[in-house]
UniProtKB/TrEMBL annotation:
Gene3D superfamilies: DNA primase, PRIM domain. PANTHER family: BIFUNCTIONAL NON-HOMOLOGOUS END JOINING PROTEIN LIGD. This is Bifunctional non-homologous end joining protein LigD. It comes from the Bacteria. Pfam families: LigD_Prim-Pol. Transmembrane segments: none annotated. Residues 27-280 form the DNA ligase D polymerase domain. It comes from Actinacidiphila yanglinensis. InterPro entries: LigD_pol_dom, NHEJ_LigD.
Amino acid sequence: MPITEVEGRRLKLSHLDRVLWPQTGTTKAELLEYYATVAGVLLPHTRGRLASFVRTPDGVDGQRFFQKRPPAGTPDWVTTTERVRSGGELMEQVEVNDLATLVWAGNLSCVEIHTPQWCAADPDTADRLVLDLDPGPGRTAVDCCRVALDLRERLAADGIACWAKTSGSKGLHLLAALRGATPDGARAYARTIARELEATRPDRVVSRMAKADRTGRVFIDWSQNSASKTTAVPYTVRARARPTVSAPLTWDEVAAVDAPEQLGFAIGDMPARLAGTGDVLAALLDPGSAAALPG
C-alpha cells in the first residue's frame, strides 16, 4: 500500500488503479491527481464548512452512499465539528480545510463534496445564496442558461451580484455572497425570486417542487438555502457516467451556450481551463462582494 506525505501528513493510499468511471476508464489515481491539481481553487469553497460526501467505493456503477459522519479510522488531524441536528442530536462532520484532508477523502472514493450555505463557526448565518436550476423533461442546460441570465438581472436589481457554475450534471447553479442573512431569510428570498420569475415566464420556469409540473420548464430549486440542505461545491467531481465537474462559468459563456455539450466539463478539461480563465468564482470569496438581502 503506497504511503505518501501531503503537507506533512502521512497518508496510505489504496487501490489507486481501481476504475471508478468504467465508461471512461478513469481511476482513483486520476481522481486524486485532479483534486490535488485544483485544490488551490476548490479549498476556499470548502474551508470552514461541514462536508458531506458521495462515496463510490466500487465505482460510480456500483454501490454509492452519502457520508456525513466521519468514517471509521478518520485521522486525528482531520478537522471535525459537531453540529446540532433537528431534534437536538449532535453529529460530527468533517471539514475539508486542507490538501491532506482532500486527498484523504479522495482515497476513500469520496467523489462528490457538498456543503451547506453557512460556515461551521456560525450556522445561524447564511453567507451564500444558491439557486439550483434543473431542466425538466424537454428542457436542457441551454434553457437553464437563459433562465440564469434572467435571474442575474433580477438579483442585480436588489444589489446582489451572482456567479454561475455547472452542476456537473444536467443543470446550473447560481451563487451569491450574502451579508447579515439567516438560512430562513435566504430561503424565503430565493423562493420569492423563483415565484416572481415563474409568474412572468410560466412557459419556461417553475418554482413548485412537484415533478409533474416540470415538463417543458426549468425548475428553480430555492430550497437549497435551507439550513439542512447542501449543494455540490465548485470544482467537485460528480458521480455520473463520466467524471464531470461542477465548473464555474463566465457570464459570456452562459450567454453564448447553444448546446448542452458545451457545459460537459470533465476532470481532464479543467487544468487547461483554469490556466485560461483562472478562478471564475474568485470574486465570490471577496468580502466586498457580499450583499444584504432586501428588506
